[in-house]
Design brief:
It comes from Streptomyces justiciae. It is built from 16 helices and 13 strands. It has 377 residues and is an alpha/beta fold. Bound molecules: uridine-diphosphate-N-acetylglucosamine and uridine-5'-diphosphate.
């Protein structure tokens, strides 16, 4: 049975890696969880281990915050000797954060095969650090594990081999469905004085939205107008905390600390509308059938617009207010994309444990490997 290193580093990774680890272990794989330490506050980290029942990491790299180069470089420097020591058959990375790319680059030059969960998503917006991370991670991956047909189409258009590409579905939804009943038992609505179906939920953390005070002030103006019709609750991401405190928020917007997973799912499930720039939240609202207005000009998850409840509103305050009013007047019909069925991690484990010919590069290892080693791009 293979020895598999699973990597997690920040908030959106935990709900993706947990069901994959479980499915691999059910098939007898030896799984090691490596935590890079990119996120470290209890509210951005510990609460997810508790809520999701993730065991403590086998290895903790403790890299913390820094510039892109500092953070990526620290993960790489710490991960390289670990890989050499542990010598796994496969490394699994999820999503699009700096830790994802850092561990992918190290793995690509070492022996193990590399599997990317959430492969093929593209915003085509190169100003997003995540777009760089996605494209570069896919380029050095052996197994490309795609959540949706649009992701498969992107990978084909970029010239990847068919035997590398696996349409497996969305692991985020595995975790959502597995925890929905527990989330519905949360008392978070009472704690925040909210009534089901009578409030809007907001998240903001994209650099393009929160780093520039002028842009953030425009978004807050729009949120203030919306709050006049539908009160808003905003769990504050640490990236945005300082700027929000400096600018101050209009009345009707309740700022609360970052929510734990179960509380946040309960908030989404009970919200009348969700306003967000998060990737994962666009998917969860689609699965829950809750209207979502995305405060970005583009999305790497177009299926949530085409087959879900997501509407893109951009960053212009007037357009945001008009879009939210439209959604409140005529909420989109709930629909759930195919393969967002709670079984994506089972399909991933099946692919990884079965093996196959996904290998793309010669490996510095004595183990026999398949011989087809050319990429057609
Ligand atoms: C990161 C990911 C982003 C993801 C987001 C999820 C990258 C490039 N970005 O963005 O794709 O959507 O996580 O939430 O990998 N901070 C704390 N406590 C923490 C973590 C961060 O206070 O536990 C603060 C620090 O001031 C830090 C800032 O937040 O400098 C940004 O953290 P960082 O991990 O660099 O990026 P995020 O904006 O969180
Ligand atoms: N989330 C949470 N508490 C919050 C905000 C988000 O538990 O206060 C969860 C959310 O349900 C989803 C994930 O965090 O599962 C999304 O992470 P985030 O928005 O930080 O990152 P992104 O998906 O944009 O990369």
């Amino acid at each position: 049975m293979p020895r598999i290193v699973c990597v997690a580093g920040a908030r959106p990774n935990y709900m993706k890696i947990k069901p994959v680890m479980d499915a691999l272990e059910r098939r007898g794989a030896e799984v090691l969880l490596v935590h890079t330490g990119q996120h470290y506050d209890p509210a951005m980290n510990d609460v997810f281990f508790a809520d999701l029942g993730i065991r403590p990491p086998d290895r903790f790299l403790g890299v913390g915050s820094g510039s892109h180069a500092e953070q990526t470089g620290r993960v790489m420097t710490a991960f390289e000797p670990l890989l050499e020591e542990v010598s796994p058959d496969i490394v699994v990375v999820v999503g699009d954060i700096n830790s994802t790319l850092a561990c992918a680059l190290v793995t690509a030059k070492a022996g193990p095969l590399l599997a990317h969960v959430e492969s093929g998503l593209r915003s085509r917006d190169w100003s997003m650090p995540e777009e760089v991370n996605r494209v570069a991670t896919d380029r050095v991956s052996d197994y490309l594990l795609a959540p949706s047909p649009d992701a498969v189409e992107n990978l084909r258009a970029e010239g990847y081999r068919e035997d590398q590409i696996h349409l497996v579905g969305n692991v985020m939804i595995d975790t959502l469905l597995a925890n929905l009943e527990r989330a519905r038992a949360s008392d978070v609505l009472d704690r925040f004085g909210l009534t089901r179906g009578e409030f809007g939920l907001v998240t903001l953390h994209r650099p393009a939205n929160v780093d520039d005070p002028e842009v953030l002030a425009g978004l807050l103006k729009a949120l203030g107008e919306i709050a006049g019709r539908c009160p808003l609750v905003l769990p504050v991401h640490p990236r945005a905390a300082g700027k929000l405190a400096e600018l101050g928020v209009p009345g009707g917007i309740q700022l609360v600390p970052p929510a734990g997973y179960l509380d946040f799912i309960a908030l989404q499930d009970a919200a009348r509308v969700v306003l967000t720039d998060s990737g994962g939240v666009q998917e969860e609202t689609t699965a829950l059938g809750v209207p979502c207005v995305t405060l970005r000009d583009n999305t790497e998850r177009p299926i949530t617009v085409e087959q879900g409840t997501n509407v893109l509103a951009g960053r212009d305050p007037a357009r945001i207010v008009a879009t939210v009013n439209g959604v409140l007047d005529a909420p989109p019909a709930p629909r759930r994309p195919e393969l967002w069925d709670g079984r994506a991690s089972e399909r991933i484990a099946e692919v990884l444990v079965r093996g196959g010919s996904s290998i793309t590069r010669p490996r510095p290892t004595d183990q026999p490997r398949p011989t087809d080693r050319t990429l057609p791009i």
